[in-house]
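Worked example

This section walks through a single chain of length 879. The input is the sequence exactly as stored; nothing has been trimmed or padded.
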Amino acid sequence: MSVPTRRRRWFTVCALTASAALVAIPPSAASGRSTSPFGVRAVGQLAKERAQSTGAMSPHLAADDDDGNESDEIAEGADQYAEARTSPGVVAPGAYGAAWRDLRNLKSAGGSWRNITDLPYNSDDPRYRDFDSNSSGGSGNVTGRMAAVAADDDGYVYAGSAGGGVWRSHSGGGHWQPISDRLPAQSTGALAVDGGGRLWLGTGEATTNSDAYLGSGVYVLDHPHHGTFSTRSRVGGNELESTTIHELRFGGGTVWAATSEGVWSHSTRHLSGPWKLEFAPNPDFLPKGAKADDPDAPYKNIANDIAIDPRDPSKVVLAVGWRSGDDYNGFYTKVHGAWTRITSGLGDLPADPDAVGNVTFARSADGSRYYAIDQSPEQLNTNPDSALEGIYVSKSGSPAGPWTKIADYKGLAADNSALTTAGYMPGVQAWYNQFLAVDPSDPQHVYAGLEEVYETKDGGSTWSTVGPYWNFTFPCWSIDPAKQTGDCHQTTHSDQHGVAIGRYHGKAYVYVGNDGGMYRRPVNGSQDASGHATDWTSLNDGTIDTLQYYSVGIGKDLDHGGLSVTGGLQDNGQSILRSNDRVMGSNFGGDGGDTLTDPANGCNIAQEYVYLAVQVTQNCAVNDGGWVTDPSKVTSYSVAPADNATGEARFIAPLAADMKNGDTWVAGGRHIWVQTHGYAIRSGSEWTSVHDLGEGRTATAVAASGGRIYAAWCGPCNNQGFARGIAVGNADGTGWHDISLPVDGTVPNRYLSGFAIDPKNADHVFLAVNGFSRHWTEGPGAGVGHVFESTDGGTTWKDISGNLPDVPTNWATVTADGGLAVATDLGVVYRAPGRGTWQRVGNLPAVAVLQLKTSPDGGTLYAATHGRGIYTVRVRDLR
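Given that input, the structure is written out below as tokens.
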């Protein structure tokens, strides 16, 4: 039996915020990408297309001709998520912090949120083995991305998520509790337990991916076995607000922080004083610097790690540099009191700026060895196979070296990796995926994380791929639904970010965090003949919900009564929760974007992958895998509009059903596409272009009611010449016209993120506007306001923002009683019928809510959060 084609689980790239301010995202590299309907259905196909795209130029990025050249959709997806929040200019520090304070000061609208996704999510659910599911890949139960991990020898494990805060387990993993919900930032950059047992949290994820948010500083929990983080536990002042923190390192009574604004230090004994800026290679680009407003400022002072000599804490090596390359990239140490670039003496570890990018250090407990992973900007820009420069060891135990290379991507690929195809090999995403950990009891026993997990027991002479990317490529794999993954053992989810070694009941375990959550195995675990671990355990037991939803859909569950809920996720496909489920399943793989679910039949589903690729099913994509040998048994169908093939749609493109006729769908790329066959559509050729927005423009939001369509667009979409607009017309192609929106007019020149049409009157429509107002955004026409109302079909607009906090707004929904609910980057607000003021809905942590939908009967509001799962609240409780 041949290995089936599979959809690649792509992540996206950029750098953003969740508390104190948005990073101005670096312009994406000149980037090409695949044009097949689902980008890549197998690693081999991904590799082929990535190799072909290296150095190419995508339609979206023609104006962004910098030197990054990420060569595929990763960088573009990153830019687009950030563009919505930063364009038309640069956002000043403090924006999110101010918005969080204002939101918390709003009166409550009443009602309480209920999390409905706080149960296991099985990515290998045997019910859903259709063509575009990744089920049987071997990841098991998953949750959202984990950016950092810490553990102690008392069985306590701490998991820091990308957007859902920090979680604690007292039982070696599982039975999790959130411990940072009171903080204004839920994005984790670093976690570390110091020698006194205190837990340090650096907020602001530093993976430079599309949904990575900035933080609000560093916090300490003195007794991490109990209690929770609070704003009173912040270290220092506001020096590290609006940064990302890659690592926290300790030595000589000092904590060092590698941040997006240089390297900082602070006493570990006296926590109230300010942080000291140790080194910033380009200080003019820091906040309040002469070039702070430059679009390049966010990536001019990036620090990745700090290595401290265990024998002499005064000897420190800094790893500094932007992943795509810059003149300042390199290793630095103090010479005669001044930080100086190291230009020689490192041995195999490169000193050339072109070969030093994202770096991670780890040292052995006995101080005899230091290890390092180095990602190369030059390889990222020129090598379609990998961006990995290598893995290195300093056998002197000194971070000054000399260093010896002990692994490269070709050697790792040969160690029974799942990534063996030219064009997609180990380290292809080394700027995004990295971790290193040394066994405290053995300085030659090392775990390394890239896309996969690798282990060496002899200091790097030999390696085993103990956590392969997935199992599809191996002879042991089978799609048999009676087995999780054929005869293969469970592996981890792909894309590794955090690692820690701790003990539980006296036994040592390694804990890894990745795009699928938390996993563990014994430090001295078992392997099969291929070197794959046989003893990984998923720790994603449902008590930890950090799922990163882009969307939510609700329909009646005709088989079991009640409702079926679906949602598209970052790197975890689409989840499906039937009314009788105790475990969620995954019926589509890849990055799940928007989703349409038939209110009358929850098994009629359309799921969007990236760039307006769309799959449709009419049986919830339930499948026993029989399509592997009999293609006629496929029950999901690719129905992408043509803008997917031409690359003229956004990474997460808008998709909507007509409010009055669920068989009429609208999709937006460069064109506005309409199809009238509903869930019975079987081919992309069934879409009709009813309007061309124009070359260089792409839809950001669409909505339809009774044949009337509203479409928002941007083009250019970045902060270099940003422009936006609205087009209105009919589903039959008639009456299309552009609304006049002057740059300095009522509606700001910012990203238009969503429409909410009054179900009683299609001329009555609300508009949600993303980004920050001109108080924070330095760009032409940034304007003010976030919610606007039109009663004449969009011809004129009125700002109804009122007391709404100045925060990026993502979605708006008219409730059945005429109220208006709005999703923001920090929660949900509500305006009751007949009122002009906004109230806060419930007490969600500081998490982005990207979409709101109501149940078929209109009685329940569903919120898709990007970091804490899906929540519901009864509409009647809002008042």
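What to look for: Residues 344 and 753 are 51 Å apart (CA to CA).
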